[in-house]
């Protein structure tokens, strides 16, 4: 069963096409990596799945439901969450409030309930705080930082806050856009373990954009390779490592073993 | 007088005032294109230039050309000062903060003018001959027509400057991509300062023309706020759009003055802007930006 | 957690002191404090829109005017008591705010600035010209507010009329930011596209923030109508919008406590300027009456610029820095980069 099915996706901006005829399937509860050189259209692909861009042609199916035309703010309620390549946290707010924003669609408080802050609104807020502290913050070792302003945290922790925010929604489908960019080896390993834990604990389907081939090989069940906006190959990590087209797309010349790319 | 004649007279008179709008609009777009700043003080900079001209030409009784030159130099200096002390310090701040700051600058200029000159209306010397102008049977106010000829000439000069001069190309390069322009050896900061000064110079000429067509008060800068509508109407990044929109708003104002009761003319540009926001928010000639995330 | 409890206790004490004020303060003070209460409401409203949600409105003064005129109309023509007329005035202001804000809030960009500026001029024109409803240049004259045998005609009673809604509406606003609604506002200010991915409908929340801000403006206008007992077009011009922008910036964008400070500062400022002119006027032949208005405009503008450059987070931040030395927090995250071009 596939959680996400993208069929024949084409995306162009005034004649320049970012994606053409891309079909990628993310199987339920598995980790699917999307790889490819810079400018191959990976982030554009994520932006179509999260609804920023309306594709020129093609369909996006979530659990069999067509969501191609659904505006971005309606998608989290269906279980889609994502992180960003450039950390996109909200400055001027605490870590806890940033994480809470991830659960926005699961709360009901309206304008008047919020302003009066009685009964329901108060309970809902307390319940959310408790849930984040027990489920997410502890899991990602952020509990001691909950009340800090998010811009005061070091880079690696900020990435983790972003992940926590995505998890606060308890998503069925999690899109991770280069989650270890700019991290050192230890931080990368910690993040890899976290990603595996997330899958194990919640059965989340994960789509992952990553340049670190070692990490892709270790983590993913499935790999899709994009180049110049086309999906040139899909298969298991091992198959990709042997695929000549993939190797040449990455290295510009045939022959070098892909797994040796790990930086 | 026949209905058609009235229509034509008002049309031409409206287009003539539209020339001033176009000029001010160009000053606004120049700054926006180069530095991404919405200069809400544009109208008040033009007012400041007009008062300087008044001071030189009437109080010190200088020849009008000398007075105009001094006024242009003074407002360039003022613009340089504003760019240097306010805008440069605000680089990287959120857009709304920058807008508030330019709005504040406008208020300061207007306040100072009102303190120094009071709120009474001054008449500028008859820079433009008053003799009416005839096209067939249609009589046009001489000042407006000659003002229009002047503004058209200036607009043409600005466009040629942008297109062909070295500084104009540097400016457009900066507008397209600041970082790359910087890497190509363009002094981006100097481009910012220069555009502010150019806008001020344009504004001064526009201010003198506008004030000599009507009269000079500290509220002359309100034209600058009307012009914002012009800029929106034309599209923020389109020079051609500003020209068309400026003339159009001038015409529309004249039409409402001719055919509608009361002083609804005052708010015509704003009604046009609101209507525009509903129909084509990115302007008649502007393009919707492709966003990257 | 303990810090918030302290702050809440402090707020409660301040509110109590504010309500007891007429018992010990001289009349002139009570007058100023009533004005302050009204200004607090309007400043908090604009802060929700501009400080928290990041939407710049230049029409706040006009929306206050809408509240004032609507309240006056309901009271005079329909004979409604003040406790209905004022809230209804707020609702009218909110609805008009929505009408003017809707086209520009649908799209991203600075278009709201232009739309609200247009609203300011158009509404002012309506105040002047729709004589049947607004009374034209003569404006509207109101009877003092009265209900259940109490007539709000003394300074102390008027003060209560203004202070109670000021406290209530400030608390309402502060509460918003303890919930998803307030978080959504701030998220839109900081990164609207990211907010959208988290499930926040930009149009809906931007409209909500703007309508709420206009409602606050309308309530403040309605109170002002009963406070001065007259509503004229000259009271709600562009300079009022700038006055409240300055109050928001000077006090601290994105802070309710800051709105209190900013409103207090801006309420006292004209009085200080007046005193100053009186003193200076003894030595120079100044036409003080003529200079006061432009001088105020100049000072408002200067304050706006200086605070935006030197302390964009306003007085509240200065105060916090003084109060708690540990909190030597790093400067606001305003990265000076070449590319200040943003589309929002």
CATH class of chain A: Alpha Beta
Gyration radius of chain A, in Å: 19 Å
Tell me the strand order in the biggest sheet of chain C: 1-4
Number of helices of chain A: 9
- What distance separates the N and C termini of chain C? 34 Å
Question: Strand-residue fraction of chain A?
Answer: 15-25%
Unreliable sequence segments of chain A: 254-263
The assigned structural class of chain A equals: alpha/beta
* Chain-averaged pLDDT of chain C: 87
Strand content of chain C: under 5%
Q: Between the first and last Cα atoms of chain A, what is the distance in angstroms?
A: 34 Å
Uncertain segments of chain C? 327-344
Order of neighbouring strands in the sheet with most strands of chain A: 6-7-8-3-9-10
Helix content class of chain A: 25-40%
Task: Using the 3D structure, state the CATH architecture of chain A.
Answer: 3-Layer(aba) Sandwich
Largest sheet properties of chain C? 2 strands, antiparallel
Order of helices and strands of chain A: EEEHEEEHHHHEHEHEEHH
Could you characterize the architecture of this molecule?
The complex is a heterotrimer of chains A (263), B (293) and C (344). With 263 residues, chain A is an alpha/beta fold. Chain A contains 9 helices and 10 strands. Chain B is mostly helical. Chain B has a two-stranded antiparallel sheet. In chain B, helix 6 crosses helix 8 (188-213). The longest helix of chain B is centred in the N-terminal third of the chain and has 33 residues, at 3-35. By secondary structure, chain C is an all-alpha fold. Chain C has a domain at 28-236. In chain C, 73% of the residues lie in helices and 3% in strands. Chain C contains 14 helices and 4 strands. In chain C, strands 1-4 form a two-stranded antiparallel sheet. In chain C, strands 2-3 form a two-stranded antiparallel ribbon. In chain C, strand 2 (145-147) and strand 3 form a beta hairpin. The longest helix of chain C is centred in the C-terminal third of the chain and has 28 residues, at 256-283. The model of chain C is unreliable at 327-344 (pLDDT under 50). Chains B and C meet through helix 4, helix 7, helix 9 and helix 11 of B and helix 4, helix 5, helix 11 and helix 13 of C.
